[in-house]
Amino acid sequence: MIQELREYSQSFFFKLLLGIICVTFVISFGIGSFGDRREVIAKVNGREILLKDYQKAYQEGIQSLRQQFGENADAFAEQINLRQRVFEQLIERELMAREAAEMDLETTDLELQEQIRRQPYFHKEGRFDYETYNTVLNQNRIVRHEYEDSLRHDLMAGKLQELLTQGLIVGSAEVEEIFRLENEKLEIIYLHFKPEAFMPQIAVTAEEVRSHFEENKESYKSDPEFRIDYFTLGLEQYTDSVKVREREIRRYYERNLETYTTPAKVKARHILLKVETEGGEEKLEQRRDELKSILARIRDGADFEEEARLHSEDATAEKGGDLGWFQPGEMVPAFEDTAFRLDTGQVSEVVQSPFGLHLIRVDERTEEVAKSLEEVREEITGILTDKRAEKKLDEELSRLEFELPDQSLEEHAAALGLTIKNSDRFSKTGVIPGIGSVFGLIPQLEGKEVEATGIWKRNSVQGHLIYSLQEIREPEIREFDEVKLEVKQDLKQERALELAKETARKGLEKTAAGASLQELAEEHELEVKNFEFTASTKFLPQIGQNETFREKALSLTESEPFGLHEGEKRSDLIQLLGKRLEEENTEPVKEQIRQRLLQQLTQSVLVKELKRLRDEAEVEIIIPVFQPLKSAS
Predict the structure, then answer these.
(1) Taking CA 498 as the corner, what is the angle to CA 497 and CA 502, rounded to the nearest 5 degrees?
(2) Does 5 score more than 50 pLDDT?
(3) pTM of the predicted model, to two decimals?
(4) At what angle do helices 2-9 and 587-616 cross, to 10 degrees?
């Protein structure tokens, strides 16, 4: 049962659903809305899913990706087909809520109120504020009853999830198995037979090079070439039309005042006496008295820096206790609070911290300085302008993605007041003047036919490329004279790899006769390397993600410690040195494993239930662009 459910949890869709995008209809700041259009995009058992709700959910998803992947978010969103994923999630959200209703699960007004009160963006001075609640909804153009209905919807789905996963347990045997898998360390040494080391031994004739070319002509084709018509859409098309209000500038300044404030700093020295924890109060008082004696000498005229060199028990002693400059948050609280209360030149009383007992002297200080609104007005105006322009750009891209297939590129460009440009032919190594490298565009074009349209999302400053594919030149086999040197090098590398593999096989035979890896390394001028890893280690030190190497190493035993790994492009002799499992304080680790397995099991149950509900549901897709995913894996 557990294994069957786990298979669901390994699907890419499931990981995406739970790890990257969570479709909830809470506030998404800075995104805006798409109006109150009631265009229906699908019906689930008769209930409507609206375009505006889809658009909000999609924007939340893309915002989440931007937080994780930055400027690569749009490309990743296209790669994972984010738009379709969000659509599928909306359907499943509706299915879960309907199932909850059929099971007579309810969300009370009190539960709804409590959920709203917990949302931090409705808080003022750390507490829920009703006026802030209304203001935030209004600023995001969200109707209150729609928001509350949606939230009630989600709470019901949450109750169904809890009901479905009650009583799930993870057995101790499975915990023990995973613990051993993740914590038993294997130490190995290995000898990598690098093909490069055998290259000097390889010689090929002109006839062999020619023959290799004739037998592998398909490997020496030119890259496909493309030609497109295009226009770009970026921030520059919208910044001039954006107007930022004075109150917005002031609000941004007030909310981000910390950004425009240089914190107070002090330059200080200290004398530290460490206190052993096992010494108890008696030892603490003894050390305190020692430090008080030093303080008395300083107040009688002794030099603080010299006393620090003689008595301080940390690395700053040789510098006279100099700690340099620091600001709030960089020292432990007890030390920091005292340092920032001292005047320049003043020496503190004895201060206790987790590091021991201190005397502190402040040598210099600077006070906190905040830039005025006028000093940063231009900067803030630019930030807010770009945010507004970014939102308009995102909305325009969203519209284009839906409407691009139905109108010509010229019509779209004309509607935006832009001019169509024509590229020359280019391959993956080429450039378009004014655009730059087209390497990221090629994967899109390779799957399209002539006259197909598309959007190459780059970033808002560069501008997104809206294009129509005008010409495709298919790859052609290049002439022998053009690729002769490349063919010769390929042939030599191929033979060097075979020689390396053959030498490795003979090396394994020699280990059976008593030869060591070090002896083989010296014979072939190679290097023996070693590392430790566990069965769950995916990226092996020095090697990377090599599943066949890992499996061969894991198969070695004390009775058969040598093995030969033969991959497609590498050969290695591996020797197991030993295995060890640290048994101390394992219970906390095992409990973490138990909780992780329980979470996976819980998630698997939910995915299986979603699949059942979807199979039984009546789903009517109104807008054809939303077709079901072919596979959830």
Answers:
(1) 120
(2) no
(3) 0.49
(4) 80
